[in-house]
Amino acid sequence: MPIDPAIAIGADLGSNEFAWETSDVQLYHLALGAGLDDLSYLDDVAPQVLPTFATVAATFHATEAPRVSFPGVEIDLARIVHGSQEIVVHQPIPPSGKATTSTRIAEVWDKGKAAVIVQESTTVDTDGNPLWSARSSIFARGEGGFGGERGPSESVALPDREPDFDVTTKTLPQQALLYRMCGDRNPLHSDPAFAKAAGFPAPILHGLCTYGIVCKTVVGAALDADAARVKGFRAKFAGVVYPGESLRCRIWRDGSQLLVAVTVPERDDAPALADVVVTLA
């Protein structure tokens, strides 16, 4: 079914009530590589919570692959990759709780050979207090050409000086298999045959796993390992990462925010995330 922006844009995708426990938070942090150097993320009673947990909280216990089936949008999962992600936390995420997320399609862009579908969501606790807001996009290869608007093209300029921090984090060969336990069962990250059919030589790391690892790296390197200092975190997914590769994070202080360049050193610093901005609380 071709994309119909007249139906899709503004479509209400409904609300989702969910709950999470301390053990879910611990598993999420373990899936990002937390260990003996990050025990504050693994405390049994009150672990600190990375703001990126917001990207998995509502679907943490999902066991089926996601579907891209929305009003005016019907796309084969094999054509989909994550385009961008932004999280804004309105208060530190508690280590356990209940919440409701409401989501809508905000934009649909026609990039010619591809389409970009942008979703916005808000999450509130049981008393209606805002917990976090999110904006994300998916990039659908081969789904453009439907006559829609092309959309904006924006980039973040990095400072013309040496970074304040330059940190390299090694991922595990089984990193994607660990991360899929957080609710993202897309076979692109676990099934070699599916990955090859989608145009990749091997399963790739979840973009949101890279996103979470980078957030944890930035918090550890530049924010005294205090996750509560992060107000917002946004990034574009600029290239694939294969489990077992490293992520190099060059971090610049820039007023009330941090700017980050994320590359894969094993492939001549190929880009992994771009336009990464960490807004400080």
Please give a handful of descriptors for the protein shown.
single chain; 281 residues; mainly beta; Thiol Ester Dehydrase, Chain A; 10-stranded antiparallel β-sheet; two-stranded antiparallel ribbon; 15% helix; globular
Offer a quick outline of the entry.
This protein is mainly β. The chain has five helices and twelve strands.
Description:
The chain is mainly β and 281 residues long. It has one domain (5-280): Thiol Ester Dehydrase, Chain A (Roll), CATH 3.10.129. Helix content is 15%, strand content 37%. It has five helices and twelve strands. A hairpin with a 5-residue loop joins strand 11 (257-264) and strand 12 (270-280). It is globular, with a radius of gyration of 18 Å. The model has no long low-confidence stretch (mean pLDDT 94). Residues 143-165 are annotated as: Disordered. GO terms for molecular function: (3S)-3-hydroxyacyl-CoA dehydrogenase (NAD+) activity; 17-beta-hydroxysteroid dehydrogenase (NAD+) activity; enoyl-CoA hydratase activity. Belongs to the enoyl-CoA hydratase/isomerase family. Residues 18-142 form the Peroxisomal multifunctional enzyme type 2-like N-terminal domain.
